[in-house]
Amino acid sequence: MKNIEIIQDTNFIETLEEKLDIDGPFSSWELFKMAYEAELTTITSDFHGLRALEFLPHMNFLPHQVETAKQAIEEMNGRAILADEVGLGKTIEAGLILKEYMIRGLVKKILILVPASLVNQWVKELNEKFFIPAATFRKNYPWESYDIIVTSIDTAKRSPHREAILDLNYDLILIDEAHKIKNHKTKNFEFVRALKKKYCLLLTATPVQNQLIEIFNLVSILKPGHLGNYESFLEKYGKDRKKINQDAFLKQLVQKVMVRNTRKDTSLDNSKRHIETIWVDFSPEEYKVYNELDKTFQPFSTFSKITFLRELCSSREACFLSLQKFVNDENNHGREILQPIIEQIGQLPHHAKAQKVVELLQKIGDEKVIIFTEYRASQLYLQWYLQQHGITSVPFRGGFKRGKKDWMKQLFKDKAQVLIATEAGGEGINLQFCNYMINYDLPWNPMRLEQRIGRIHRYGQENDVHIYNFAIRNTLEEHIMTLLYEKIALFEKVIGHLDDILAELNINSFEGEVKSIMNESSSTGELKIKLDNLASIIQSTQNSWQEESQYGN
Amino acid sequence: MAINLHSFLENYFEAHHCDIISNQDGVLKIQLNEKMDRALMNRPFYWHYIKKMGRDGDPMQLTLITNQDSLEERGERIHFGSPRLQQILTHLKENERFTRLFQIIQANQNTALQPWLVVNIKISYIGKHKKDELFSIGLNLINGIMQTEMMESLYNKEFGMKISDFCYTITPIIKPKSGYKRILSVLDQYIQDLDHEWAKESLHELENEMNLLKHFYEGAHDEEIVQMEKELQDLKERYQPKIEMKVVNGGIFYLKGN
Question: CB–CB of B209 and A56 under 8 A?
């Protein structure tokens, strides 16, 4: 009892006496009574439970989302890593937690740090779904004037914002895509650590990407010392890239500050993925140019050759532009031998894949479709080509300003049939209203494919989603498709574990690995063997891992 | 929810002297007056300019749909948790804090009314988690009798801002301020007698995390020490148990003795 601070209300009686002296103004009986009833309906009479659910009757929360919010509040006391797999609704869980704290009057000032491309979306979702009056940062308004602000970490950590923000006492800090602060040597990390905060939520789908020390860093923001100090942690777990799961004790500790739901254990699979590979043949003219380019005596590195070939598989335009650029650069030796090829490319008819796209779109009929391509030139070409066939489309790129992104999304929703996005546009748009996706060309990193699919196959998607992956036979694309995607069976949702597998194999970047294989192979045959090896290693690691987890846990 | 939303809203706008234009099937259409337009519609510039031009201005109409199954499309759906209801509840809590009321009595002979201090007070227990308790306490300012659940006992009576004919008030013997002190000391005793398991848990957690924190910063230097101090402060903010008493509303009620 002696440790409890008691705060009394002295102000009330003073004001009442003043009012009695000057004869009012006073409330009528009706309104006085109603104010009392208003308080009765809004007080929280229990330490436990989520009152927010009563406040949000229009929302259909999934059981794991409610459970996660409860756990974060009641067991983790408001400092937690929310690490659900992509598409299970981390934003929803976070919104629910925020709402609960606000209703209970424990939180007033909130700082929400998210990637710049997601700022508007967060503001919109908090306002529309949770009635939380969040705002974006505007110049001329000082930071202390916002109660609930959404901004990007890059803005926040820049002077003079940085100083202003560090001066404020926040009740709650939320960081989306928190894996971006997992490195303790970065400015981002230092900044987040220095924030004055009561509660703190870190959202990430990939809490450990490479090294265990990453989870140590994230936890050190929430609960310093929970995993020991830096030295003792390193001593115990090393810089090894072991999985958390291998150490039962560590896993237990981490689970005290982290909630991770997976598709598998939430059975969020009522909307299924139908994945189909669409094999395309080049026209004879196209094959001729492709093979010629492939066989060209190399004035350039294998790497740029691979790039050119990949581009040719995407569109004439993409390849044409980079070849031209190469030829125009006087530092490049032997560039004259490319000139005939450039001319041949100029002569090519329409791209075989583009024709296939139109064919497929006509078959799909009156549905919204999102097309992903790796190249901007292909994006422009496709837009033009679709227009020629009376199909409306809008472009989408990572480089678009926020307002333009929102606008494009709206246009797609209301007016156009197709949205054509480049890779950089993949993160940060949610398109649950669309359930068809064409991967016009495949990324070399399966994680990125998963991110693409996550745009439409996520919480809120009520229909089955159809994914079409394009690949041209007898080209690089065939290797990528058969070896990386079909063989590893990455489509079968092992993708959730790919992180762990790669970490165990000491592979930093999957894409880098593939590129270096391409780079170091002098023939297609060699390339094939090496890719095959990579696939086998991944496969066997995955198998042993699955066995292990059958016995473990 | 402790209230019937539809009649609650009806009463609210009537008490604020707004005309109810129509009211059926859970759809309530209200003509606001200037005061309520200013309070709810969030358009200060409109009122600023219209007044500058020396005009009266046109308060808006508001259509509130409480029936969630209603097919009515024009109007705002209002439910527990919706921004409009929160706005109204906040408006009530902020503006209806003080009162002085007289019981309405049909008397034909002189009748004495006794003064009561009525205080509705919220006690919040804040530690790891938080909960509230609401008390309504009345204190007779003549004889010092104290009564709990005071509001509930007033519900079946009628009150007006002016004293009824043939009634007169008795001057308080106990001053409101000392009455209030008595109420607080009773609540204080109540709190002392509670078992504060929640606070113990919270303190335990605080101690726990403080130890972890100190271990984390073992052997730390200047800059890191500053960081540690900040984190200690964060921890105290989060776990230090406290009890907050806040008066929701209150005032003087003149009641007829038994």
Answer: no
Chain B residues whose beta carbon lies within 8 Å of the beta carbon of residue A37: 2-3, 8
A3 touches chain B (CB under 8 A): yes
A154 phi, psi to nearest 5 deg? -65, -40
Whether residues A220 and A361 share a domain: the answer is no
- Among A445, A473, A501, which residue terminates a domain? A473
A246 with A353, same domain: the answer is no
- What residues of chain A lie within 8 A of the CB of B249, using their CB? 27, 32, 35-36
With CA atoms as reference, the chain A residue closest to B98 would be: A26
Query: Do B103 and B254 contact (CB within 8 A), yes or no?
Result: yes
- At A269, the pLDDT band (50, 70, 90 cuts) reads low
Find the domain containing A147 and state its range. 60-266
Domains in chain B: boundaries: 5-95, 100-195+244-256, 197-240
ipTM associated with this complex? 0.94
Q: Please check the confidence at residue A504 and state whether its pLDDT lies above 60.
A: no
- DSSP-derived 3-state class of residue A172: strand
Q: Does residue A354 lie within any of the structural domains? A: yes
CB atoms within 10 A of CB A471: 23
Residue A484 lies in a domain: no
The reply to whether A85 and A209 lie within a common domain is: yes
Number of alpha carbons in the 13 Å side-chain half-sphere of residue B66: 17
The nearest alpha carbon in chain B to A191 belongs to: B227
**Confidence (pLDDT) at B72:** 72
A402 & A258 share domain: no
Q: Which residues of B touch A3 (CB under 8 A)?
A: 199, 203, 241
Q: Given B131, B205, B248, which is nearest A46 (Cβ)?
A: B131
Q: What is the pLDDT of residues A291-330, one digit of tens each?
A: 888 887 666 666 677 888 889 999 999 998 888 888 887 7
Nearest to B97 by CA among B253, B257, B249: B249
Rounded to whole angstroms, the Cα distance separating A525 from B252 reads 95
Distance from A15 to chain B by nearest Cα, in Å?
8
- Please spell the DSSP secondary structure of A198-228, one letter per residue: EEEEEE-S-S-SS-HHHHHHHHHHHSTBBTB
Residue A480 within any structural domain of the chain: no
Put simply, the answer to whether B89 touches A41 (Cβ < 8 Å) is: yes
| Distance between B55 CA and the closest CA of chain A, angstroms | 27
Is position A314 within any domain? no
pLDDT, mean of residues A58-68: 89
pLDDT tens column, B18-77: 999 999 888 999 999 999 999 999 899 999 999 999 998 999 999 999 887 777 778 888
Across the A/B interface, how many CB contacts are shorter than 8 Å?
A: 210
Q: Per DSSP, which regions of A331-374 are E strands?
A: 369-373
Q: Are B30 and B19 in contact, with CB atoms under 8 Å apart? A: yes
Contacts of A40 in chain B (CB under 8 A): 2-3, 134
A22 contact B CB<8A:
no
Residues of A in contact with B16 (CB under 8 A): 31
CB contact under 8 A, B133 and A43: yes
Return mean pLDDT, chain A.
83
Confidence band, pLDDT 50/70/90 cuts, at residue A234: confident
Mean pLDDT by groups of 10 residues along chain B of 258 residues? 83 95 92 95 92 91 86 80 90 96 91 96 95 96 95 94 93 95 95 93 92 84 85 92 96 89
Domain end, chosen from A473, A499, A525, is at A473
A127 lies in the same domain as A225: yes
Same domain, A117 and A216: yes
Measured over the CA atoms of residue B127, residue B133, residue B134 and residue B140, the dihedral's sign is negative
Of A8, A55, A133, the CB nearest to B245: A8
- CATH number of the domain enclosing A224: 3.40.50.10810
* Cα distance from N-terminal residue to C-terminal residue, chain B: 33
Q: How far is B61 from chain A (nearest CA, A)?
A: 21
Q: What is the C-alpha to C-alpha distance for residues B17 and B43, in angstroms, rounded to an integer? A: 20
Q: What is the pLDDT of residue A70?
A: 95
Residues A91 and A196 reside in one and the same domain: yes
Please state the domain count of chain A. 2
Contact status of A46 with chain B (Cβ, < 8 Å) = yes
If asked whether residues A260 and A370 sit together in one domain, one would say no
